[in-house]
Amino acid sequence: MRCDRNITTNQRLSDKADLLYLLRDVDEVYRRSSAGGSKMIRSHQHQVRKRLSRVIEADEPLIDRTPEDKPVTIHLPRALEIGNRGPLTQIAQTIGRITSVLTWAYGYDKISSRLAKRYAFAEIAGPSGPVRAQTLIIGLVLFAPGTVYPQHAHQEIEESYISVAGAWSENDAAVYAPGSLILNRSGDQHRITVGDREPCLLVYAWLGEKERLLKPNMTFSRSFR
Ligand SMILES: [Fe+2]
């Protein structure tokens, strides 16, 4: 569940070096990664960086989040190990230094027991914190080997994923390796599958209005439940 308490701490982003470095690493990845000739992806990358730089500059007090693991987090060390050997080494190492403060969550009111063991996400910046952001969420998604993440769509939210570790596919359209960026526009239906042998760790960015980011009303498409 998302945190609605919004209890402000007396620490700012600049007091938490590795959180700050992680956001800078994310900014760097969105700056460096190619848009592959897509104006839409280029514009998304630009928007993520613009909103992220505002968040970093604002250096507001952090929101208190209680660290929490989920069953899938037993795969995080392996995912980071793989990430450390891939093209996003820097970001994998920075994530490795903040694992003890991450709040892993599901984001759905109803989730199957199978998926509950295989998936979770952790927000880094957003309206619920820990780093305060109004129109942007930056977070991590972790999938266990062999996960099928059911078909869903986000209304009024533009979403991108960047692979840190593992091979995965969306809508059976291609296999994405670490370093890849994929864009899901508002309303785009998508279903994710993950390779059988290794976990998959993605960084994601959501762009949208604050109210929508706080209540994305995510549900799975009935046919894939
Ligand atoms: Fe999604």
Please describe what this structure looks like.
The chain is α+β, with helices and mostly antiparallel strands and 225 residues long. It has a single domain (12-224), classed as Jelly Rolls (Sandwich). 28% of the residues lie in helices and 28% in strands. The protein is built from six helices and 13 strands. It has helices spanning 17-32, 39-58, 76-84, 89-97, 113-116, 210-214, and strands at residues 8-12, 61-63, 104-105, 119-126, 131-132, 136-143, 148-152, 158-165, 168-170, 175-176, 181-184, 190-194, 200-207. Strands 3, 4, 5, 6, 8, 11 and 13 form a seven-stranded mixed sheet that branches. A four-stranded antiparallel sheet has the order 7-12-9-10, with no helix packed on it. Strand 9 and strand 10 form a beta hairpin. The longest helix is centred in the first third of the chain and has 20 residues, at 39-58. It is globular and about 45 Å long. The model has no long low-confidence stretch (mean pLDDT 92). Fe (ii) ion binds next to loops.
Label this structure with key terms.
alpha+beta; 7-stranded mixed β-sheet; 4-stranded antiparallel β-sheet; 6 helices; binds fe (ii) ion
Secondary structure layout plus pairing:
Elements: E1 8-12, H1 17-32, H2 39-58, E2 61-63, H3 76-84, H4 89-97, E3 104-105, H5 113-116, E4 119-126, E5 131-132, E6 136-143, E7 148-152, E8 158-165, E9 168-170, E10 175-176, E11 181-184, E12 190-194, E13 200-207, H6 210-214
Parallel strand pairs: 4-5
Antiparallel strand pairs: 1-2, 3-4, 4-6, 6-13, 7-12, 8-11, 8-13, 9-10, 9-12
Mean pLDDT over the residues: 92
The SS-based structural class is alpha+beta
**Which ligands accompany this protein?**
fe (ii) ion
CATH homologous superfamily classification = Jelly Rolls
Q: Give the strand content.
A: 25-35%
The N- and C-terminal alpha carbons lie at a distance of 20 Å
CATH topology: Jelly Rolls
Estimate percent helicity: 25-40%
What can be said about the biggest beta sheet?
A: 7 strands, mixed
Number of strands: 13
- As residue ranges, the low-confidence spans are none
Write the H/E string, N to C: EHHEHHEHEEEEEEEEEEH
Bulk shape? globular
* Number of separate domains: 1
Assigned CATH class: Mainly Beta
Task: Label the CATH architecture.
Answer: Sandwich
Radius of gyration: 16 Å
Q: How many alpha or pi helices?
A: 6
